[in-house]
Task: structure prediction
Amino acid sequence: MNDCLFCKIIRKEIPSKPVFESGTIIAFPDINPAAEIHLLIIPKKHIGGMKDLTLNDGKMLAEIYQVANKLVSQYNLDDKLYRLVVNGGLAQHVPHIHLHLLGGKLKKTA
Ligand code: AMP
Ligand code: ZN
Result:
């Protein structure tokens, strides 16, 4: 999607500092962190939100959780406080599906 913010980040038209990138997934720090560690994990394929998922996206969803697991270890969060959050409806501001990884003390709601 041409005018989607996260698609622009994926195409490097908007800068980010990826902490993980593969052919299908990218993860980078949230610009407005809601916790000490706040990363966004995103499929490179444009999927608006939960309602747009199909069973064909199953592998991609498993990959997203694998990346989250890898980042949890990388940021030493295994035995600490962390949350994985998916916003929807009015709580979702960027219509490209994404997982928030929030680690450490929360500053506000993601
Ligand atoms: P949501 O409200 O679940 O749609 O989350 C969208 C998130 O994207 C928010 O937490 C924003 O702070 C974050 N965000 C918006 N623009 C950028 C950007 N250019 N780089 C990184 N994160 C961003
Ligand atoms: Zn998009």
User: Anything to note?
Assistant: The helical segments are 5-10, 58-74. The chain has a mean pLDDT of 96. The CA atoms of residues 76 and 103 lie 9 Å apart. The beta strands are 20-21, 25-29, 35-43, 82-85, 99-106.
